[in-house]
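Hi Y.,

Following your request, here is the sequence exactly as I used it, all 148 residues.
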Amino acid sequence: MKGKQDNLFHYALEEARIGSREGGIPIGSVLTRNGKIIGKGHNMRVQKNDPTAHAEIECLRNSGRIGTYKGTVLYSTLMPCYLCAGAVVQFGIRKVIVGESRNFSGAMEFMQSHGIEVIDLDSAECIEIMRMFILNHPDLWYEDIGRK
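Below is the corresponding structure, written out as tokens. Let me know if you'd prefer a different format.
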């Protein structure tokens, strides 16, 4: 499902830019409820030397214990992989809004099969950020998605 960007998505995009400035993979994520940010994160695999430090996982870690994920929305600049989609399913997040899925198709069907609404914004900016990263850092990218 394609959608229109809302005002909270730009916080995920800013997280992706932070990750890029740190020398990491430019993927950002934000968890919200009722239009308010609960937590933010960006891919920290390179910075932390941690293969599980994906943007969505870092965002959830930074959100802390929130009791329930009912009514939350997870934003990510790139379609979540199976690791991150598993966390979405595990915690009962019912809506995920992503910047793009052209550079990486991720686990959209997996999330949808678990009743999660997935909206792909097909953002030209997100597509270009990832396209350029993959072009300039193919080894890091293919390591990140487990295809090295």
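Helices lie at 9-21, 45-48, 55-63, 82-91, 108-113, 124-136, 138-144.

Thanks again,
Q.
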